[in-house]
Amino acid sequence: MDADAKSELLEAAQHELMKHHWDTFCTEPLSIAEGGKGVIVPGCVACRKLLYTNNQYLSHLAVDVLPQILEDVLKDNKNS
Ligand SMILES: [Zn+2]
Questions:
Q1: 12 C-alpha to center of ligand 1: Å?
Q2: CA 60 to chain centre
Q3: What residues does each domain of the chain span?
Q4: DSSP letters along 8-52, please?
Q5: Ligand 1 centroid to 38 CA: how many Å?
Q6: Which of 12, 27, 30, 44 is 20 to 30 A removed from 36 (C-alpha atoms)?
Q7: pLDDT tens digits, residue range 47-72?
Q8: Are 51 and 44 in contact (CB under 8 A)?
Q9: What global pTM score does this model have?
Q10: Taking 80 as the threshold, does the pLDDT of residue 41 lie above it?
């Protein structure tokens, strides 16, 4: 693999990883203020997964996100 291909893969992986930012989101479409049953919770916005601590967030990246990225990268690499 040449340097260009490597930096391309790195860029694609970083792009995927950065989708999983830790923020707050609403569990239901409507917030309580709007009359819905939704609650604002902290977690991964992309996966809508509850994550209360920085440690849980890092585990999510390492356990859920990274394997998927690697799998996609390796699959693409095999095809080319
Ligand atoms: Zn996520």
A1: 16
A2: 8
A3: 20-79
A4: HHHHHHHHHHHHS-EEEEESSSSBGGGTS-B-EEEEETTTTEE--
A5: 20
A6: 44
A7: 999 999 999 999 999 999 999 998 98
A8: yes
A9: 0.77
A10: yes
